[in-house]
Design a protein that fits this description.
0% strand; elongated; single chain; binds zinc ion
Length: 113
């Protein structure tokens, strides 16, 4: 006696009926930003150093050297004990004047002359 075992082919029915909410909630009315407005091509020509830049550098250097000379001069007067006195009339330079410019060598009356 032959026994036949019926094979039940279980068909896997996709029972995944869960609704997928694919689209996430988005804020309405948000415009997309413009793309590529400032796109710059690679290999842009390098701007050469102009003569104006060199003149500005020289002016800055000249000013720095002048400031250094003023400071050294002020230190020299400090060592000599005459710092803060007008080199013309010898009167003490105004305090607020020295606060504004510690390297001032003259009083207000003799400055700029
Ligand atoms: Zn003076």
């Amino acid at each position: 006696m032959a026994e036949r075992t019926p094979q039940e082919a279980e068909v896997g029915a996709p029972d995944a009926l869960t609704e997928v909410d694919g689209a996430p909630a988005r804020a309405d009315g948000a415009p997309a930003p413009p793309v590529g407005a400032h796109a710059q091509p690679a290999g842009a020509p390098v701007q050469p150093v102009g003569a104006q830049d060199q003149a500005a550098d020289l002016a800055l250097l000249d000013r720095a050297e002048q400031q250094l000379a003023d400071i050294e001069s002020a230190l020299g007067r400090l060592d000599a004990g005459v710092y803060g006195t007008c080199e013309v009339c010898g009167t003490p330079i105004e305090r607020e004047r020295l606060e504004a410019s510690p390297v001032a060598r003259r009083c207000a009356a003799h400055d700029g002359g």
